[in-house]
Amino acid sequence: MSGSSRLVDAKGLNKGVAPEFMVSPEMLDHVSPSGDRGGMVLGQGMQAGEPLMVSALRPAPTRIVLVGGLYLALQTALRAMSVGAWVVIATGRPTKWQVLAKAAGTGPDGRPVPLVQIRRLSPVELPRPTEDSPLLVVHDGGPTPQELFPPRTPWQTTIYVLPYLHPQAGATANAADLVLMQRLPAGQAQLAQRIWRLPPPMVNQLTSLQDDQVVALGANLWRPLRLITTQREQQILGPIRRGD
């Protein structure tokens, strides 16, 4: 992580990602794949506005949990596509994800480019991920997801989209290598406190995040950041928002 990241030595945060999950662009080449393979700009620092990158597609099976609105999941998947990842989306609300299929475009035959596959919430055979073609699997199955596509191979990342933090999601949350949380109501923030044993100041911060703010949580990592969006992303996804 970048030198300005806030380190957390709270019990319960001692497993998961290595510190390279949140790094400055200058450090990316030293600790993770090159910028066009796995390194994605996630947002910017709250104080200095420096760009922050997340090593989301790695040569190791990876789990990421997103707690919040659908916009955050859509933007993360869109940026994975931009660095060459296959994206498989298992969801109970497929119409919400069609914007990604449209963004991928069509081939010479007029058919949708198979870079994005939107599936039902049931196990299917996945593409084989490689360094040149990493795989992002998005599990959009509600607040208590089942383990349909656990990451088992290098270059496979599974994202679990949780619309809110549920007591029965504790196992999924604890198994994550990285957690990205948007603003939480007081009751859910208290649940987050119990799951990760957060001190009161961090709990308070979770309840006061703005619509465009996210907390990145991992091993020795507590990093509030501000989401950024490009003009092209705004055309595809609309403005940054907390809800769906």
Observed structural traits:
244 residues; alpha/beta; eleven-stranded mixed sheet; 24% helix; disordered N terminus
Describe the structure in brief:
The protein is α/β, with parallel strands linked by helices and 244 residues long. The protein is 24% helix and 25% strand.
- SSE class: alpha/beta
What is the subunit arrangement here? Answer: single chain
List the secondary-structure elements in sequence, H or E: EHEEEHEHEEEHEHHEEH
* Average predicted confidence as pLDDT: 81
Strand content: 15-25%
Rounded to the nearest angstrom, the radius of gyration is 17 Å
> Which regions are unreliable across 5 or more consecutive residues at pLDDT < 50?
1-37
Number of alpha- plus pi-helical segments:
7
Main sheet? 11 strands, mixed
The percent of residues in helical segments reads: 10-25%
The rounded distance between the terminal residues' Cα atoms is 30 Å
Number of strands: 11
Gross morphology: globular
**Strand order across the largest sheet:** 1-3-2-11-10-9-4-8-7-5-6
